[in-house]
Amino acid sequence: MKNVRPLLIIVLILLAAIVIFTLMQNSKLKQENDKVKDYFSQTLEALNEIQDSLSEIDTQDLIVKRMARNQEVDGQVMDSKERIMSSIQSINDYVALNKERLNNLEQNLQERNIKIDGLQRMIDTLKKNIAEKEAIIVQMNERIDDLELLVAKERIKYENELAENYEKINLQKNLIETQDATISEHEATIKKQTEEVNTVYYVVGKKKELIDNGFMTKGGFFKKAKKSGDYNIESMVALNLLEENSIQLNAKLKNTKVLSDQSIHSYILEENNNETVLKITDINEFRKVKYLIIQVD
Questions:
Q1: I want to staple 215 with a disulfide (CB 3.0 to 4.6 A). Which of 100, 153, 210, 235 is the partner?
Q2: End-to-end CA distance of the chain
Q3: What letter would DSSP give residue 253?
């Protein structure tokens, strides 16, 4: 009995040691498990952030493509190109940053020997997404170069067309100026002709004055003095019928006589305060005879 008791004590001590060791192992395992959970949570959060960043890049990509389309339409190369290249560089830096973060996460998982199918699928999907973004950036850079060449060609074409248009405009301008000058000449000619058609020349004088100045011929024993057919226009007064249609004569009506051949229906003689006024009533008829000779005595 005495020999059994020490053995029992030893067994109890061993059992207690085993229990304590097991509890310690379970506590350590729980701590390790908590660390793994925390790391898994952090890794998952980091992967979600990378995914969000790549989604944001999609939006920036659309903006850059829209800017490139606008550049292709309006041809504003310098400002547009600088803005687009700046945006592409920002996207490129962003992709590189996320690529580095993803590589670090994958390396940490490998170093910790953590293999979780769901995480690995997410990592592979993100790596594929990043590769696609890098390919898009290359395409956008190539697209910008193509656009620059296209716009340069369009600018040359536009400048050539502009030069041609300027030449056409100058030719048209010269033609218009020539036509204007011709029109002005025609207008001046018409005005001159109109004035000439509507201008008559008259002379007023006593019989002797008219004879002396050649507007009447001398009479004889059996000939009466009459108007001459040869007139010195410089001795006559011009009258524009469009501006004036009457002549004031310093003589009484009974002493006034029209010697020239104007139609008697184209004018009238009126007395006004011991003076006579010749009023033209029909310009068209009156102007048929260019020279008017009036005798007053």
A1: 210
A2: 195
A3: G
Q: Is the separation of the CB atoms in 276 and 249 below 8 Å? A: yes
Three-class DSSP category at 265:
coil
Asked if residue 261 and residue 208 are part of one domain, the reply reads: yes
Amino acid at 96: A
188-224: pLDDT as tens digits? 999 899 899 999 999 999 989 988 888 887 754 334 4
AA identity, residue 130: I
Which residues are CB-neighbours of 106 under 8 A, at least 6 positions away?
Answer: 123
Q: Is 139 contained in some domain?
A: yes
DSSP output for 217-250:
E---SS---EE-S---GGGSEEEETTT--EEEES
| Pair (168, 204) in one structural domain | no
- Co-location of 157 and 206 in the same domain: no
**How would DSSP label each residue in 47-111?**
HHHHHHHHHHHHHHHHHHHHHHHHHHHH--HHHHHHHHHHHHHHHHHHHHHHHHHHHHHHHHHHH
Rounded to 5 degrees, what angle do the CA atoms 79, 80, 86 make?
90
For residues 154 and 71, give the distance between their C-alpha atoms in angstroms, rounded to a whole number.
12
d(CA 259, CA 212): 16
Max avg pLDDT among 21-30, 72-81, 135-144, 225-234: 135-144
**Within a domain: residue 27?**
no
Residue 98's contacts (CB-CB under 8 Å, 6 or more residues apart) are 50, 53, 54, 126, 130
